[in-house]
Amino acid sequence: MISVDTIYQRVLATANKEQRGYITPQEFNLFANQAQMDIFEQYFYDLNQFRRLPGNDTMYADMVDILEDKLTYFKRGPITVTNDSWIHNIDDDLYRITDLNFEGKILEEIRYEDWYKIQNTPLTKATNNRPIWYRKGGKIYFTPDLGEISLHYIKKPDKVNWSSYTILGTETYDSTNSVNFELHPSEETDLVIKILGLAGITLKDPALYQIAGAEDNKNIQQEKQ
Q1: CA torsion 16→20→21→23, rounded to 10°?
Q2: What is the separation of C-alpha 190 from the centre of its chain, rounded to a whole number of angstroms?
Q3: What is the torsion angle, in degrees rounded to the nearest 10, for the CA atoms of residue 19, residue 24, residue 30 and residue 36?
Q4: Are residues 28 and 137 in the same domain?
């Protein structure tokens, strides 16, 4: 967790330096949610890249381990589902289904468009030892019908919200109605940089945008080395 107020104050302090302009709470919330999703979605692209590279024997330096650790908070399950199950009850929360399994067997995910071809080819047809599943129209379908199976998924980050109340004309942070970032604490600096970059566009301040962009690129290069 990262305090939404800490990030907001850091962003304001940087943006207001040299009178660059004021970022309203409404603007900040929009920028903050976009920045959080940008960082969150980048985890999956980075995992795909680093899994193709040789690992590192040092526990605290292996990028796959680091990224998996950052994603641990968002992992959910198991949830029991049956064939032809609606998953609308987790749709608002769902970002990606990680696996379906039955008694330790992982079901192979296929595209709905490929189901007929797979099932009508003897070598690829699903069996109890090699079950398959697909998703269509908010439902889960799997073959053969194994009864109840377990679903694991990764949830989306909750929407960030910096809330306040006014006392005698002074805007005061309202921790009760605010929602913090759900990202790993190590992402604090990246959040500030990304939000400043978005704010630079709104404030029509190319310098602020360029500074944030340069810092973002530098961090990316360091992570990829």
Answers
A1: -60
A2: 14
A3: 60
A4: no
35-38, long-range: CB within 8 Å, 24+ apart, which pairs? 35/190, 35/191, 35/194, 35/195, 35/198, 36/157, 36/160, 36/181, 36/182, 36/183, 36/191, 37/156, 37/157, 38/194
What spatial distance separates the first Cα and last Cα of the chain, rounded to whole Å? 27
**95-99, 179-183, 218-222: lowest mean pLDDT where?**
218-222
pLDDT reading at 212 higher than 60: no
Query: Structurally, how many domains does the chain consist of?
Result: 2
What distance in Å separates the CA atoms of residue 74 and residue 147, rounded to the nearest whole number?
27
For 208, other C-beta atoms within 10 Å of its C-beta total 23
- Could you give the CA distance from residue 23 to residue 118 in angstroms, rounded to a whole number? 54
- In this prediction the pTM is 0.80
Token digits of residue 180:
């913090």
Tell me, what amino acid is at 93?
Answer: D
Domain identity same for 114 and 164: no
Q: Is 95 helix (H, G, I), strand (E, B) or coil?
A: strand
**CA–CA separation, 55 and 69 (whole Å):** 15
Tokens of 161: 């919200």
Residue 78 belongs to some domain of the structure = no
Band the pLDDT of 223: cuts 50, 70, 90: very low
**What's the domain range around 95?**
83-147
